[in-house]
Amino acid sequence: MKKKNRINDLLEIPKEVYSNIPNFILTGFEELIIENYKGILEYEDYYIRINTFIGIVNIHGINLKLEKMTEDNIKITGKIESLDIERMVDD
Hints:
Elements: H1 2-11, H2 15-18, E1 23-27, E2 31-35, E3 37-43, E4 47-52, E5 55-69, E6 73-87
Antiparallel strand pairs: 1-2, 2-6, 3-4, 4-5, 5-6
């Protein structure tokens, strides 16, 4: 594993590309892209819960929509009021 990390560092490959660590891209308060998500736990127009490999992401807002979804990425639009992460506890 150490050798693989050194190769990725030398090639300057972003960590989220070769691992399951999510990447969050927040554009203003109206668009959120989560890369490397696992699934959708809850979906309302005021609250969305997304499961990731490091924990659960809670998004609160108004008129929230799942704009675009692929196997790895999800795009949420609307008026995002708050964002918090429930970190998974390592055993």
